[in-house]
Design brief:
Blueprint lengths: L4 H26 L7 H19 L1 H26 L12 H37 L1
């Protein structure tokens, strides 16, 4: 079990960055559209919310969503920019407004999908309590 919420948040943030590195490198070397992997990020957000709920409670599961979303939209994006994965369309120029909008949208995506995971965590917890009763 994770000793602290902070440690857990750190681990899930590292997992997101590791995914971004791996996916970017694979996309670049195998020439497949990096953006087609968005669904994997969403699955990781759900898993993070589920595990956050399971180890630290529902609120922590939801907060985990913000952590993974902000991490993906900042450090993950920086990793992607450095590696330059294959994207078959022209990227728009990066302005401060675009960067901020992206951070907000991806953070809300993280929150949304982690909320689903945290709700699943509550459901599993309820099922296991009723099974043991």
């Amino acid at each position: 079990m994770m000793k602290s919420k902070t440690q857990f948040y750190f681990y899930v943030a590292c997992l997101i960055v590791l995914f971004d590195v791996t996916a970017s490198l694979a996309s670049r070397s195998l020439k497949f559209d990096y953006t087609s992997l968005a669904w994997v990020s969403w699955c990781l957000y759900v898993l993070a919310g589920f595990l956050g709920c399971r180890y630290h409670g529902f609120a922590a599961g939801v907060v985990t969503g913000v952590v993974v979303g902000v991490t993906d939209a900042t450090l993950g994006w920086l990793v992607e920019l450095a590696i330059k994965p294959y994207v078959p369309f022209k990227q728009p120029p990066y302005s401060l407004a675009l960067i901020l909008i992206t951070i907000i949208i991806v953070s809300f995506e993280g929150l949304f999908f982690a909320l689903i995971g945290a709700l699943l965590g509550l459901l599993v917890r309820q099922k296991s309590k009723s099974a043991h009763a």
